From TrEMBL:
It comes from the Eukaryota. Its EC number is 1.1.1.8. InterPro entries: 6-PGluconate_DH-like_C_sf, 6PGD_dom2, G3P_DH_NAD-dep, G3P_DH_NAD-dep_C, G3P_DH_NAD-dep_euk, G3P_DH_NAD-dep_N, NAD(P)-bd_dom_sf. It comes from Artemisia annua. Transmembrane segments: none annotated. One of its GO terms (molecular function) is protein homodimerization activity. NAD(+) binds at G24, S25, G26, N27, W28, G29, F55, F112, A168. Residues 209-240 form the Glycerol-3-phosphate dehydrogenase NAD-dependent C-terminal domain. GO terms for biological process: carbohydrate metabolic process; glycerol-3-phosphate catabolic process. Belongs to the NAD-dependent glycerol-3-phosphate dehydrogenase family. GO terms for cellular component: cytosol. This is Glycerol-3-phosphate dehydrogenase [NAD(+)]. Residues 19-184 form the Glycerol-3-phosphate dehydrogenase NAD-dependent N-terminal domain. The keyword NAD applies.
Length: 300
């Protein structure tokens, strides 16, 4: 049995203990910190404290944004009125913020990522895992580069993604939403990310397809229809595009995959009137209870 060791964080039972740092503190980064902090404080496999790297700004009051976040527990500029969790610690020093973390959550606008990655080369733990919540891609002369690829290549870390039809301000006030973790091969780490982000109002499942999930994060029209139904039920706002739901349904039916994609199936059945709009918040009961163990074809 190894004792708790802060250089190579392990618990007595040899399972890793996770220390999370969020790189980014805008609208979505702040909501991510709220989700994560609510889980690290109750899950024994995580350290309670969640560091959040803040691109320092001076507020009109003359105060530093970081100081105000740490004093009030609110990101008054990017997510005013929402408590992040007393275990969130804002840090303006990027290197310091990532130094001890073995779980790195990247959530800045994508145009800053190349510069951030350059600053982080050689500064992250060798056993760190990463996840990107960033939509968009780096477009270069050689072709497009997904942000998860940029992070993996520059920092030499395994990088998952978390994407969904997510509107930060709605999730901040705990309106129902869902997201998918895209992972490459390691189911255990995918399960850890699912645990870290899941709350009763933020349903997270996992799929062994980083690029597919990352691309779908931007091509999310069908999921947006679902949010439109939720809007009709006075639970949120979003955009709509109905014929795609039918096309997707037909592909899934042809492949025999309807049960594996209950959201798409339910959206189409609501569009055709076979199900009432209220089915949108019930469809998850059809989904595999443990997406990492009982959703067979999703993970092969
Ligand atoms: N907001 C949403 O509802 C939402 C939902 C899902 C995904 N996303 C994705 O999350 C990512 C972050 O979006 P957001 O809404 O949090 O962004 P935002 O526009 O709210 O935040 C901008 C952030 O960038 C920082 N910043 C400004 N200049 C910078 C610089 N030079 N270097 C580094 N950081 C700098 C700001 O301090 C701020 O923290 C994006 O890729 C977005 O597509 C956003």
């Amino acid at each position: 049995m190894s004792p708790l060791n802060t250089n190579n964080i392990v618990q007595n039972n040899d399972s890793p203990k996770f220390k999370v740092t969020i790189i980014g503190s805008g609208n979505w980064g702040s909501v991510a910190s709220k989700l994560i902090a609510s889980n690290t404080i109750k899950l024994p496999s995580f350290y309670d404290e969640v560091k959040m790297w803040v691109f320092e700004e001076i507020l009109p009051s003359g105060e530093k944004l970081t100081d105000v976040i740490n004093r009030t527990n609110e990101n008054v500029k990017y997510l005013p009125g929402i408590k992040l969790g007393s275990n969130v610690v804002a840090d303006p020093d990027l290197e310091n913020a990532v130094r001890d973390a073995n779980m790195l959550v990247f959530v800045t606008p994508h145009q800053f990522m190349e510069g951030i990655c350059k600053r982080l080369i050689g500064k992250t733990r060798s056993d760190a895992q990463a996840i990107s919540l960033i939509k968009g891609m780096e477009v270069k002369k050689e072709g497009p580069c997904m942000i998860s690829t940029l992070i993996s290549q520059q920092l030499g870390v395994n990088c998952c993604v978390l994407m969904g039809a997510n509107i930060a301000n709605e999730i901040a006030v705990e309106k129902f939403s869902e997201a998918t973790v895209g992972y490459r091969g390691n189911r255990e780490i995918a399960e850890t990310w699912v645990q870290l982000f899941s709350t009763p109002y933020f349903m997270v499942s996992a799929c062994q397809d980083v690029e597919g999930v990352e691309l779908c994060g931007t091509l999310k029209n069908v999921v947006a229809i679902a949010a439109g139904f939720v809007d009709g039920l006075d639970m949120g706002n979003n955009t709509k595009g109905v014929s795609t739901a039918k096309e997707v349904y037909e592909v899934l039916k042809h492949k025999g995959w309807l049960e594996m994609f209950p959201l798409f199936t339910t959206v189409h059945e609501i569009c055709t009137g076979r199900l009432p709009p209220t089915a949108i918040v019930e469809y998850s009961e059809l989904a595999p209870k443990s997406p990492l163990t009982s959703g067979p074809n999703l993970f092969q």
